[in-house]
Amino acid sequence: MIVVTSEKIVGKDIKSTIGYVKGSSARARHAVADVFASLKNIVGGEVEEYSRLLQQTRDQAVERMIADAESKGANAIICFRIQSSTIAQGASEVVAYGTGVVID
What is the pTM of this model? Predict the structure, then answer.
């Protein structure tokens, strides 16, 4: 599956537009990560536990978007975007979305 942020894929012709495709994932922090984050607040530095958690959440949202595109018959996604938001204290949602297309 080709996924691009642009409206076109260089060297490929878009044969048809499937439409909006999306995937989302919501995750909450856990107690162990919170303990390490508290320590990082004192000494400074990257909170690697949160970074890993957010990366896993982004990856899952993109995987679900690709599955949505495939289920609708797309073989590529253009205009890809990713957005995150806090949905509750300690919990975030990531939404990946774009336009599913069929390329040759």
Answer: 0.82
